[in-house]
Design a protein that fits this description.
alpha/beta; Rossmann fold; 9 strands; nine-stranded mixed β-sheet; about 25% helix; single chain
């Protein structure tokens, strides 16, 4: 963030489809998963962050140029409707990340257009929908995202994500998960693209109350704080000019042919 007195402007983006279409998900997240995620961030960051929410079915998916320009960190949860996100909105978010906006990608957001665009790979992984027990092990305890987090985080019921996970080598690997079926997964990874910081954190299937888990909420809040820690929050827009448009001033400028 720009200074200690200026709170981070955090936007939590969610599809908000499962909660409206599946009664069992609505029972877990009656106000939407995005609202529960936002509450966890506010709970841990307090006045150091202003947290807003938006959803897929709003105009421009709630990601208008004005909204994106005002956002320091964008938190992304998507699953069932990745293809419905308009390409021009993806490019808008992509450009904002390169210019300094932080991005926290949760669970099935690994398959979102924006994450694949930023990674440059397929981002495919192995998965199994079952009653798995997940242990989230901290492998970089000195990392700010791991601050105050028990080792391991125990999630009693969760969807399994497993390797291979087709992403570039992370800049930092913070968490690795083990599942009751024996699988392992790089569940907490950081990346840098342009001037922006990206944190991917996998726990959080819509069928389980994972975003009510106090340790998961702490990790997400830590990830938001980490992704928004460095300024400038947004570089000024650079106007594209042809080389011939540049006319420096001064007596040393030659008007003759180049030798």
């Amino acid at each position: 963030m720009a200074d200690d007195a200026t709170p981070l402007d955090v936007l939590v983006w969610g599809e908000h489809r499962h909660e409206r279409e599946e009664p069992q998900v609505a029972a877990l997240y009656p106000d939407g998963m995005h609202t529960t995620i936002a509450a966890g961030i506010t709970e841990h960051l307090g006045p150091s962050a202003t947290v807003r929410t938006t959803t897929l079915d709003e105009p421009e998916h709630g990601l208008t140029p004005q909204v994106v320009d005002a956002t320091d960190v964008l938190v992304w949860w998507g699953h069932a409707a990745h293809d419905e996100v308009a390409d021009h909105v993806v490019e808008r978010v992509h450009d904002a990340v390169l210019a300094g906006m932080g991005l926290v990608v949760l669970h099935s957001g690994h398959w979102s257009k924006i994450f694949r665009r930023l990674m440059g790979t397929t981002c495919v992984l192995r998965w199994r929908a079952g009653e798995d027990r997940e242990l989230v092990w901290t492998v970089d305890p000195a990392h700010p995202i791991a601050r105050g987090v028990p080792n391991p985080i125990v999630i009693e019921r969760q969807e399994m994500y497993g390797e291979p996970f087709d992403v570039p080598p992370p800049d930092e690997l913070v968490f690795v998960s083990g599942f009751s079926g024996g699988e392992v997964f790089r569940s907490g990874c950081t990346f840098r693209r342009g001037h922006g910081r990206i944190f991917f954190f996998s726990p959080g299937d819509q069928g389980y109350p994972v975003y009510h888990h106090p340790d998961v909420r702490r990790v997400i809040a830590n990830g938001v704080a980490w992704a928004g820690v460095e300024g400038p929050r947004r570089l000024p827009r650079i106007e594209h000019r042809e080389v011939g448009d540049f006319r420096p001033s001064g007596d040393d400028v030659s008007t003759g042919p180049r030798r």
